[in-house]
# Entry
Amino acid sequence: SREAASDSEPENGVDDETPGVVKITDRIILATTTSTYDCGLLDFLNPLFTEKTGIEVQVISQGTGAALETGARGDADVLLVHDRKSELKLVEEGTFIDRYDVMYNDFIVVGPAEDPAGVDGVASAVEAFNLIAAGEDIFVSRGDDSGTNRMELRLWESAGIDPEGQDWYLSIGQGMGDTLRVADESMGYTLTDRGTYIAIFDSVELVIALEGDPALFNQYGVMAVNPKEHPHVKYNYALLYIEFLMSDEGQNLINSFQVNGERLFFPGYGLK
Amino acid sequence: MSRLFEGIIEAFRLIITLNPALLQIVSLSLRVSGMAVVIAALIGIPLGALLGLKPEKKTRLLNKIIFTFMGMPPVVAGLIIYLILSRQGPLGVLGLLYTPTAMIIAQVFLASPIVIGLTMIGIRARGCDVEEMARSLGAGSVLIAWTVIMESRFAILGAIITGFSRVVAEVGAVMIVGGNIAGHTRVMTTAIVLETRKGNFELAIGLGLILLIISFIINSGLYSIQKGGKNG
Amino acid sequence: MSRLFEGIIEAFRLIITLNPALLQIVSLSLRVSGMAVVIAALIGIPLGALLGLKPEKKTRLLNKIIFTFMGMPPVVAGLIIYLILSRQGPLGVLGLLYTPTAMIIAQVFLASPIVIGLTMIGIRARGCDVEEMARSLGAGSVLIAWTVIMESRFAILGAIITGFSRVVAEVGAVMIVGGNIAGHTRVMTTAIVLETRKGNFELAIGLGLILLIISFIINSGLYSIQKGGKNG
Amino acid sequence: MANHEEFLIELKGIRKYYDREVLHVEQLLFKKGHVYGVIGPSGAGKSTLLRIINLLTPPDSGTLLFHDRPIPANGAGRLAIQRKMTLVFQKTLLFKDSVRNNVAYGLKARGFPRSVIDERVGSLLKQVGMTDLAARRADTLSGGEAQRVTIARAVAFEPELLLLDEPTANLDPGNVELIEEMITKLARNKAITVVMVTHNVFQARRIADQVIFINQGRIVEMGPTEKIFSAPDHENTRLFVEGRMVY
Amino acid sequence: MANHEEFLIELKGIRKYYDREVLHVEQLLFKKGHVYGVIGPSGAGKSTLLRIINLLTPPDSGTLLFHDRPIPANGAGRLAIQRKMTLVFQKTLLFKDSVRNNVAYGLKARGFPRSVIDERVGSLLKQVGMTDLAARRADTLSGGEAQRVTIARAVAFEPELLLLDEPTANLDPGNVELIEEMITKLARNKAITVVMVTHNVFQARRIADQVIFINQGRIVEMGPTEKIFSAPDHENTRLFVEGRMVY
Ligand SMILES: Nc1ncnc2c1ncn2[C@@H]1O[C@H](COP(=O)(O)OP(=O)(O)OP(=O)(O)O)[C@@H](O)[C@H]1O
Ligand SMILES: Nc1ncnc2c1ncn2[C@@H]1O[C@H](COP(=O)(O)OP(=O)(O)OP(=O)(O)O)[C@@H](O)[C@H]1O
Ligand SMILES: [Mg+2]
Ligand SMILES: [Mg+2]
# Structure
């Protein structure tokens, strides 16, 4: 229910799996990114799915690259990731099937409250990046070839700047949460998905420097591992899970999920 | 720092109120690492004793290789086991990936070189004299091995504790082969990493403290076994 | 498996073509872990020798505490150092976070208990007799310590190698306090984790192999120092 | 030469090298139930000889025959022979265990029943005057106490061949007498062959039937005790037993 | 009583307990330049006595005076006194190093110049017949070789007080004579005080000026050597030196 999800309960990773009275008949493995798992969304959704179907969802949260690799090797049954371009390519190659745009949110630029680069009030991310580069203010990059990282690199390209190797540009090759922490400690800016930022909002002093630029759209996709490639995968159950997420009920649940009083994800395909 | 206290208190509250999820994680940690160390000891102590009784010149290369394997990054060990157990890997059909068994395998891989290497060092100190004495008194090979091991039991205890310490504190390998699945393959260290990632540093440290306390209790237990083994 | 070969070959290609980024990472790994182990040895060998010469009964509690600290999860060690060095932490003004210095501090914290504990075990085997002999021959406390250490040098070599192995393979602590900043605080293990995150498992294993080879070379070096130390 | 069957152990062309040749024995025969005294200067190769007989040090060449049969290189046959003899090391070595368990070790290794073990250990500890210290940890014993325990441990299982390397070096006259009596009795009553290395020529004279004088790795002379002491064939033997050998 | 100044070391009311009392010495005085022989049955407390004098085992009560002054509990003063004496352990212990470096150890500890060290070590190795083995690792030596090296190591720095615990237990007659000569010469020519524990009563008779007989932790009798051997005050002393003490 909405109440349970919106207090701090889901943040508590130790407290989150109270097995229900539901009889578990089978299990599927969901490979996903840290951004969907760490904020508690899946701990909110999955028990409801289990209740309906008796299928337990075992979540493995990794970097997007590792999640895709895990799926491609057939070590997971279903994926929930946010790197649309790679996803579509892999679907085309036949690695995954039944891909749907399940939900979206957006990227934001966050930075220190003092805003040394003067990003506040700027409307476009490219412009903000220009200001950061001009002022040689610290910018922390995930540098892990994740969806977020690729988005960030596209923005630098649009700004006509090559930040690689600059003193003020810290490429750290870590997850979003870690990146936010490093940005916080080094009083720098970074590009983040909104979900992760809200989830760890409490423990950092970073504030939102820029939001709302249509260029900062972040689409999540759900898809199944192709049973033709990996005959052992539980394709039917994966389909059940995808159907659940795409159903009206599932979409409504996603819409209702809140952390720290904020909505983290919006159902369906964002750029209509 | 007050948040640190809160986190630690929160961790202890979870333990004292017998929080089922936490208890389950702790017990899995102990089962996985305990089993891994038992297996590593069964492999490592005899092997280490054997090597320790050989003249050092003959085992020099082997020593170096064993010492090198002590420095195997857990992530790499985890990846190797992953590639073997993965569906496409040679042992994929067994379906062991993301199970506690896979975690035990990875930890055995990490703990064995430590147990072998340190047992060997411990036995070198006076193992050969003891071996000869035992042999001269008519001991068969099993009794010889047992005697040599008992004579170096303090060093071997150290080897086991060091091995256990390594695996119980390790996260890279169990994360990869176990998947940190809640209620299934989540152990103390992967829970700590998860909390860290979420920014709950204080809770993470609290969990770390609990892990240390458990280690302390286990060490104390091993200590008394070692003392009791042969009249102090 | 062919992809595994590709990954390993790719890793070696990077090393053989003297890829500057990789060389820089390797050299930082060695500097950080090397420095940490040197410091841990300077702290740990004398302390371990001191404890090893005390009757075991008197040091029992201390032994258990040291053994327990061997099992400190690197992530927790990293977090503790992080909270101390972070901007809001007690030593925040020093600005050490995300520097190699911070990584060295964290690794010293992890390696010292190992060096202390294993040195102690090594010296227990015959340290007291050696100490008394040295004392009876008129050695001052420095020479006594030196003699005791030299008599157990194989065990102490093992302590150092085990300590080095732990820190050079460790990723949890250096990741947190170093930040894995490219060109600044990225070391072998954090690079391995990065490649793993990206799904380049094979390249990660290749980098791991390189790390093992480097460890092997270092172990061999330490070995010959130990042999050469006193007409081996 | 006597009937071949009497020989317990025979050495043939045994050589041992370290940085130089330390032992070279063309032939050496030990008869059942006799007591042999091995004497010779420090570094002569006496301990090496005993260690080779006890199968601890492999010789670089030559063969050992036990009851006329070569000793197998390994396996159960070798263990069976090894169990018929034992060596009391020159350097006293006790296990870090109680005195009682040390004495019981060889009996346990041979699977003696518990009751026999307890009885024998008790009686032996009494013989060597260590009953009071039965429960003591062996590493707290005095030099002479430890030496007596090693002897008790070696004779506990009544080996056919008892090899002793300076077994009374740390004992006072009274205790030496005690041990000597014990050893000669074993040889006489149980037909145990004793080979005892001793630097104490008087001791060799007291207990040995035959004396072997070794110098620089070679057997210089071997013969009945009285002959060696009163009319040795070699000048060096005479000098040595008179304590006048010059190094 | 003689002039107090002659006394090198004095024991007063020394007691040592382990599971029972193992040593209880009301008073014991050692004069400069004299050779003392300590005899007594196994476990009597002889080694414990030497270890207490060498400041290795702290007594449970009593005091030690060196040149009439109590020995400081620690610090440079204690080290200075410790450097004036040394103990050759009953259980031979050599450092895992070359024979040469073992003999040089005490000299190095005292900061002797390199040239003096080389010369003394060379001359001592010659005296104990170990010149050929100077470069050998000490743990490969035979029992008697090792024992000779420990003696050379102890006398190298010419301590004022030389404590010897069964130093010739593993040596043959010729080597025993050699060592005894060396020791008596040191006492005579350099006024070194020697306290030698020996189970060999003949040896005590040969080299000691004074003999101390210890039994069950107590000094039963102490006196000039000839008196102890020919006309002891105590029955037990007589029995012991005649090898007829019953345990
Ligand atoms: N650590 C200890 N714990 C208990 N008893 C001990 C300890 N050390 C020595 N003893 C006992 O103290 C007594 C005296 O020992 P000490 O070594 O002085 O004898 P000793 O006269 O040198 O005998 P030996 O001639 O056999 O060498 C012995 O009975 C010995 O068992
Ligand atoms: N491992 C070794 N390496 C080199 N030389 C050795 C080794 N072991 C023994 N030796 C030498 O072999 C010779 C014979 O040694 P052994 O121990 O047999 O002498 P021993 O007759 O028992 O003398 P002792 O009466 O002094 O005990 C000695 O000179 C010794 O130094
Ligand atoms: Mg010998
Ligand atoms: Mg003694």
Notes: Chains D and C do not touch (no CB pair under 8 Å).
